[in-house]
């Protein structure tokens, strides 16, 4: 066999191996339907945009949703707070490590009032981003360990349009996933609230470490019109 033929066969074999290797390394993106049921997507879609697709924009960075307005809730009585300025604390969200291969990323969220931060949530498990062009929806399972040691889990569903200035038309849905059986004051599993930014744009920010909210903290004294972060996210209003 000539040297030329041997070289040609070697190159063909090498290309075949590379193709096989790339095929084996291909990572499947988990579809949104496996995280949020189509029925829930349809229900949420009545009050917030839900963007599907596997080519979302890069949203790495920190954003401040202020003023935060409650625009929809599955909890009876919450309609009294719809669109009320100062009724809820603002949100600061931050995402890092976004992958263009499997569309995973990691997030943090905390409440903000007068420059102070409360109630840190962090991503637990896999967080995925979907969408196309500049529109996106993030499905982010988050966890918080409260001061009394109770663990509460929520699914944060965040949608919006990435712009040079931040995120426009942002919607933040907080869906209760799991809570302690004896936590009767916490909203029920499957209940949810949807918040938006009152001026239509969540601006770029810098994420600051939070001080853990203590039981002795009185928001009623310092912020008479504000609802505590735990109330905002977890608790019944009564």
Question: What's the layout of helices and strands?
Answer:
Blueprint: H1 3-25, H2 38-44, E1 54-55, E2 61-65, E3 68-73, E4 90-96, E5 104-113, E6 116-123, E7 127-132, E8 135-145, E9 151-162, E10 166-178, E11 192-197, E12 201-205, H3 219-222, H4 229-233
Parallel strand pairs: 1-7
Antiparallel strand pairs: 2-4, 2-12, 3-11, 4-5, 5-6, 5-7, 6-8, 7-8, 8-9, 9-10, 10-11, 10-12
Helix content: 10-25%
Which term fits the overall shape?
globular
**Secondary-structure element string:** HHEEEEEEEEEEEEHH
The total count of strands amounts to 12
Give the low-pLDDT segments: 3-12, 18-24, 211-238
Distance between the termini: 87 Å
Rg measurement, Å: 22 Å
Summarize the model shown.
With 238 residues, this protein is an alpha+beta fold. The protein is built from four helices and twelve strands, in the order H-H-E-E-E-E-E-E-E-E-E-E-E-E-H-H.
Structure description:
The protein is 16% helix and 38% strand. It has 238 residues and is an alpha+beta fold. It has 4 helices and 12 strands, in the order ααββββββββββββαα.
Task: Identify the notable features of this structure and list them briefly.
single chain; 238 residues; disordered C terminus
């Amino acid at each position: 066999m000539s040297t030329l033929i041997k070289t040609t066969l070697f190159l063909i074999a090498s290309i075949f191996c590379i193709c096989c290797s790339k095929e084996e390394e291909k990572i499947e993106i988990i579809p949104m339907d496996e995280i949020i049921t189509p029925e829930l997507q349809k229900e949420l879609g009545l009050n917030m945009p839900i963007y599907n697709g596997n080519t979302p924009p890069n949203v790495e960075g920190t954003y401040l949703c202020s003023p935060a307005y409650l625009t929809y809730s599955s909890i009876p009585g919450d309609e009294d707070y719809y669109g009320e300025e100062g009724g809820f604390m603002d949100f600061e969200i931050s995402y890092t490590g976004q992958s263009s291969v499997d569309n995973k990323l990691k997030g943090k969220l905390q409440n903000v009032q007068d420059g102070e931060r409360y109630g840190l949530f962090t991503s637990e498990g896999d967080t995925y981003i979907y969408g196309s062009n500049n529109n996106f929806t993030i499905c982010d399972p988050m966890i918080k360990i409260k001061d009394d040691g109770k663990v509460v889990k929520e699914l944060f569903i965040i949608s919006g349009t990435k712009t040079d200035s931040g995120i426009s038309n942002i919607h933040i849905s907080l869906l209760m996933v799991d809570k302690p059986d004896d936590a009767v004051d916490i909203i029920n599993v499957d209940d949810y609230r949807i918040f938006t930014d009152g001026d239509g744009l969540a601006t770029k920010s810098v994420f600051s470490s939070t001080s853990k909210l203590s039981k002795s903290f009185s928001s009623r004294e310092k912020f008479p019109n504000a609802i505590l972060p735990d109330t905002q996210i977890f608790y019944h209003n009564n």
